[in-house]
User: Fold these one by one.
Assistant:
Number 1:
Amino acid sequence: MTPPGGEFPAGSPAREPSEAGPPVGGPARLTVLSGPSAVGKGTVMAAVRYRHPEVWVSVSCTTRAPRPGEFEGVQYHFVSPPDFDQMVADGAFLEWAEYAGNRYGTPRQPVLDKLAAGVPAVLEIELQGARQIKHLMPEAQFVFLAPPSWTELERRLIGRGTEPIDVRWARLDQAKVELDAEDEFDVTIVNDEVGRAADELVELIRSPRPTTRKLT
Ligand code: 5GP
C-alpha cells in the first residue's frame, strides 16, 4: 500500500502538458471530492494535478496557518480572519465552513468562470461545504474518499505530526461524523493506493453523466 503523502506530496507541480495523460474531454462539470480529515484528499488531488494538469482544481481560502511545505496560492490562499469575514460579507465564496477551529471557503468566481469556459473543475472540501454545493448545484458530482478502514484512518490522523494532539482528537471526532455521511455521495473511492484512487477520480471527472456506483 502506498501511504498518502508518499508518492505525490501535496503541492507537486503539474507536469508539462506534453507529458500529460489523455485530455479530459466532454462537457464541463463540477466534481466535489470530500471525505474525512487525513483520508488523503490532498494527496490524491496532488496526484490528479500531476497526471492530468488539464483538470482545474479550485484553491480555497483558509484562516489556518500554513503547514511546513505549504505555499500561498498552491495548497491554499492563507487569509486573516478579518479578510475572510470581508470575503463572506462580499459574497465572494461559493461555500464556506468552519472546521476544527479554522474557516475554509471556495472562491466563487474562478469556479463559475472555469465551468462557463468548458473546463472540468474540482473542489476538495469537507462535508458542510459539500452539502452547501449540493443545495446550490445539485447537478454536480459528489465523490466520497474513504479510508481502507477506521483503524487505518485513526493511525493516519493521530500519527500525523502536523497539528497539536488536541486538534488531532477533534479531527478524529469530526471524521466519525464525516464517515457517517458517505451515503449522501454519488460515488465512493477507497484510498488504499493513491495512484489508483487518482485514476478513478479522473475517470469520474471525465464521465459525462452522473453515476451512482461504488468503486473499491
Ligand atoms: P486541512 O486543514 O487539513 O487542509 O483541511 C481541513 C478540511 O477542510 C479538509 O477536510 C479539507 O478538505 C477542507 N477544506 C479545504 N478547503 C475547503 C473549502 O474551501 N471549503 C470547505 N468547506 N472545506 C474545505
Number 2:
Amino acid sequence: MRSRQKGNTSAQELMTTRRYGEEMPGFAATVYLGLGANVGDRLANLRLALQRLQTLARLEEVSSLYETQPQGVSDQPLFLNAVCRVSTGLESQALLRFLKNLEWEIGRRPGGQRWGPRPIDLDILLCDDRVVDAPELTVPHPRLAERAFVLVPLCELAPELGHPLLGKTMKELLASVGKKGVKRIAPRGWEKGEGNEGIAGAEA
Ligand code: ADP
Ligand code: MG
C-alpha cells in the first residue's frame, strides 16, 4: 500500500475523479487490469485504452503483448491481450465506471454477446488483496483462475502474487491452467510504439 504524495494529483486527475467517484484521501491501491480486443484495429484500441487510463491512474507496468485463442465463444477472431499494473486513489466501483466509460469511448456498445467479439475489454483482475462481491463488480475477477490469456501476462508482472481467496500464487494458478492458445507477439514497450512494426500478426 502506498500513500499518495501531497499535492501530486493533477488537475485532469481531479476532474476525472470528481466525475467517477470519490478518491480515498491519502490512499492508493495497486490494481491489476486485464485488457483485450478482437474487433477493429486491436493494437490501436489497446494503446488508446492505456493512454486514457493515465488520466486517473499511474501506469506502473505493462506486460508483453499476446495473441490468444478466444475462450467461451470460439467462432470469433483472435484476441490481443495484455495486463497492466496501475496505482490509483479511485475506489473500485468508481474505477469500474471509468473503465466502462472508456470501453464505450473506444467503440464497445452494451448488449453484445457474452464473451463475444469486442473492440475492447477492460477488467479489474485484482485490487490489493481486497475482496468485492457486489452485483456489478466481483474482485478478484471471477474467471481469473481459469483464463490462460490473463494468467500468462499477469505472471510476467507478478508471479508470486497471492490470490486472496484461493490461497495460491498466480504462478501456481497458471501451472494448473497451462499456456495453450496464448502466443507472445511483442515484447514490453509495445504500447509506446506507433504502427505495427515488429508485431507479428497485429494489423496496421
Ligand atoms: P467478461 O469481461 O467476463 O468477458 P464483460 O466484459 O461482458 O464480461 O463484463 C460483464 C460485466 O461484468 C460488466 O458489466 C461488469 O459490471 C461485470 N464485472 C464484474 N466484475 C468485474 C470485474 N472485476 N471487472 C470488470 N467487470 C466486472
Ligand atoms: Mg469485461
